[in-house]
Amino acid sequence: MVPTLKGRWSTRILLFLWVGVPITFLFSLFVAGPGSPRLPLIGLHYDILPFQILSLLLIVGLILDPVYFYIQQFRWERDWPFAFQFFFSIIEFVIVLGLVWWGALNFSQARPDLHSSESYFLYTLHFAFVFIPSFIAVLGFIQIFMIRWRFKSGEWGRM
Amino acid sequence: MVKFPILLDIYQRGEGPLKRVERISLPEAGDYSIGRIGDNQIVLDTPEVSKQHAWLLVREDGIAVSDRGSTNRTYIGDSEVDTSPWDGALPIRIAQFEIHLVPQTSAGETRVNVPQENATRAFSAGTTSSAPAARAPRGQSIEVALNAPSAPNETRFPRNIFKGEIVSAQEIKASEFFAGETTYITVGGGLGSFVWADHLRIFGVGTGEIRAIGDSPIPYANYQRLCRNSQIPPHERLRSNSLSTPDNIWGFPGYASRETWKDLKEFRFTGIKYIFQVFGEASLAQTFTPRSGEVFKSIDREAQRIGWRDMFVAGRVLSIRKTNDERYAVAYRVPEDDARAGVRERVMIGKFLHISTGYPATRFTDDLQAFKARFPEEARVFNAYENHEAVYRNLESNPVPATVVVRGRGIVASRIIQRLYETRDKNKHIKIVHQMRNPIGKNEGYRYKRAQRYVYNHIENQAFNWPKATWGGQLLRETERATPEERVKIYEALGGTTTADRRDWRNIIQLGIGDNWYQPVFGHFETLELVKTDQGPKIQMRLKAQRNQPAVEVVADYVLDCTGLIGDITHSPLLRDLAETYKLPRNLGVGGGKIGGIFVSPDFEIPALRNGSGRAYAAGQITLGGPQPGVDTFLGMQYSALRSVDHMAVLGAPNVSLFGPLRSFSQWIKWCKNATP
Asked: Chain B, 455-474: which have a CB under 8 Å from a chain A CB?
């Protein structure tokens, strides 16, 4: 990949909207208990927590993107190998876990279950569900829909 | 002034060196025709020569050569010519023949192949023949008959119909040359044309609206020839990325995953490594590059899918003009077999024009060119892009000590060294002298802003011929936005000769240095002479000293010039005519004073060729120095094709869709199913 900073942000938001949000929605239906709020009209139980985790991932990523772009400046090809992308995605998730542990999500309501080992397992499962399709999308599936993406350093839209 | 009679030596290249087959004498001024059939004054009787191939126009004040629209063309040295004055410094080349002008002394006698300044040198007389060669018997490949010169052909096509900058579409349509009208014409017929036509087809244009005019119906024919000669057989890997896919406009699936898939289908689980290569490149794994044979196969499949044969027109484009109805007229000459009542000239009219004619010529550095001209019978100096298989064959079949000088430090030099290394299996006495202009220290690689290029064995290493981000990242953006002067600086910093960081090549160099059969030398040749030794004629060279090092003397059997191809568009008669007629602005060239390719906008439009609502685009090498550095690459051609086709879509060009996500996806499915777009 040869992203620019704008391209990194664009791609991140694109994946958040088209991969992260739909998968998180399904995941939140899956983890919701009887005490969770219900969706209007359909009446299914959902959980807000996965959306909070996903948003944290997005925010951490957007903040780290300039750092990655700075590192790129020292690479002759100004590229970003897929392996780096893979590695730093996991680092981002570890940072999010650290933030959760620190109490970043304690603002909304008291969630005694937030720090149980079962919860951390679910966070990891959720991350895997979102991360693997996103990574595969970056490997080439985005190009199937957005032919110009690879020439636009990761930005959307026309030339 | 020309002295009569003029003496010409005709040489023929067979399996090995050039053989002189005939000497002819032209007694007076006139137009001498050269061709295959008997009514020419100079008959070169092999199928590669056209029936009426060229004119030799001999005047009191000089000689000129003029191609008559031959299939295999006419060259002076390595430059293709339409009509050009000929001073005899370089031979005229027609198929496997070379015509040399025999130098004339003041007394009117002739000396063969030995330039004046060398006549007194001891070795010259012994090594080159100074006696006229025996006449070839009649009925052999050459036949010379001096018939009366025919009338001069002043009004040659297309000058007789292309008068001025704007030509009349009505007149052309009324003429016998008119070959039809279409919407999209691409000139060149090579990979650049193919990728452009592929985009148009997938964006919605039918085969009936596209015409591609070129030499060979196989779009990669020329590229494949260059690959073969520069030692990339089908199983060898190109210098190209997995996602640079001239057969697939999306770049997905790339060649790496296709290769993995192919291996897995046959239960070769090691195939998974290709995907890991792409995953880890370039920091954790060696960069993946596809096999040339696989790329060609994939292009065959796509050509079939989009109906390339229906769009392809065999012909050689001679000239292009704007028409008076906001379109373009393309004059070309079809092969003899396609002649219509003897007429081979055609003019096609189109609304949108695309020019992608590629490299005009192979480069020979001047000293090697001069050597070849002086010693045409010695097949010892080759450009790596020429067919030089005979060198390896001779080295293998005759296992005696031999020295090969490889000139240049690019990827072609790496491949040639690899081939020589393989040749060493059969001849352990081969030594390689690798001549480079100057040494490059470990920390002397090019710098651009905060990054520096890696150097190994005095050669800068880079996966591809430009840094990756020039094909769609930060470096492309910076080049696009730069002023012409800034662009030159970017090109200078990012360009330069590089080779790929391949483990096998490094091992070869290490082995060679260790076992003392590989030696890098630095400098320019001061002398380049033919000497007679006990083992036969050899090339004696002296390299000018560099950086306080002593001058190097080398006695070589062969010199392989790996310094590349000529990108100067003025070597192409078509582009020269176009540039002169419409005063096309050119890009600034790298290295001060040089001139680059045709100036194009970031959409690859040639602004100076705009004709009302008609638009002309260019792609490939002929646009070098413009908004995108890697123009002569697969991915570069995909980029320029996408830019220009997108541009036409916005202009409302017929049947070119805006190609949003849904159409893109449905077309991709068609690609996967190998269905017509």
From this structure: 462-463, 467-469, 471-474
